[in-house]
Amino acid sequence: DWSMEAYVAEAMQAVQQQVGVSGVVVGAVSGGVDSTVAAVLLSKAIGARFHALFVDNGLLRQDEVDEVMQRLSGRLGVNLRCVDASSRFLQALQGVTDPEQKRKVIGRTFIEVFDAEARRVQAQYLLQGTLYPDVIESVSHKGPSATIKTHHNVGGLPAQMQLQLIEPLRYLFKDEVRQLGRVLGVPAESVGRHPFPGPGLAIRILGDVTPHRLAVLRAADAIFLEELRAADLYHCVGQAFAVLLPCKAVGVMGDCRTYEEVIALRAVETTDYMTADWYPIPYAVLKRMANRIVNEVRGVNRVVYDITSKPPATIEWE
Ligand code: XMP
């Protein structure tokens, strides 16, 4: 008889056995379900010999850094360090507009930052939140869909990093990871969180990623999510976010013509993120969202709603 409590005990023992009494483990956390659950499991198993690293790449959403730090380091007691590498990432992204190039630059920079931390704490082991579907997909995924977008957090272990892998979630499906999280006392906000891509807001800002455009997108996205939650719709969708388009549009304010940024809103229903349907947010809710965004976010004069499903569109715009 299989129970999650028994799985926890077994997984903790397996980690303790693998790393011995003096092994040091390093792992990146993003605040997402998988890395959070894996980090809590490791810190229960080996305490402060697990070093969690949260890389602030400057591409996170409003308040995300504080929320993740408070939850993991404060409430869950994980030995967690936040490295503010935002200027390094933004510098590396200067002038980069091609979506795949953005991913490459961000992936490379992430590895450099992470590698420095692994050396600093003299880790011999690397925690990865690999799930069972990732394991299967990386073995059987030979089709062209594997290269539609390079997801840098899947199998992104740099070759020169001589670290042994620890993958305590590799036999679990997503819903089982959530269940495991609940058993470990991970708060509901983490367990039920929508996925957020590793390259962050960089792939939701079409065109140039600048501090100013990041600020505009962050503000619009925060309003969108706040109103989605207020309408009790956050848990009805698999993902919801704002996108900053690479063009400007004409508008009018008072007696003046304006020429400002356009925000697109996207919300999808999905079970596996391989296919997705656009979600019919009620008109009254959309109206409130759009009104608030154009009134409260300086530099935006138009909001559109994305009504395409996947396929033929993808969930992200880049
Ligand atoms: P698409 O846009 O391909 O996205 O329909 C499917 C899911 O994957 C996420 N996504 C990424 N996640 N790095 C990530 O960690 C990436 O480069 C990346 N690109 C897309 C997307 O948010 C959605 O959940």
UniProtKB/TrEMBL annotation:
GO terms for molecular function: ATP binding; GMP synthase activity. It catalyses: XMP + L-glutamine + ATP + H2O = GMP + L-glutamate + AMP + diphosphate + 2 H(+). It comes from the Eukaryota. It is an enzyme of class 6 (ligase). Its EC number is 6.3.5.2. The keyword Ligase applies. Residues 2-193 form the GMPS ATP-PPase domain. ATP binds at S30, G31, G32, V33, D34, S35, T36. Keywords: ATP-binding, Glutamine amidotransferase, GMP biosynthesis, Ligase, Nucleotide-binding, Purine biosynthesis. Pathway: Purine metabolism; GMP biosynthesis; GMP from XMP (L-Gln route): step 1/1. Catalyzes the conversion of xanthine monophosphate (XMP) to GMP in the presence of glutamine and ATP through an adenyl-XMP intermediate. This is GMP synthase [glutamine-hydrolyzing]. The chain holds residues 228 to 545 of 545 of the full protein.
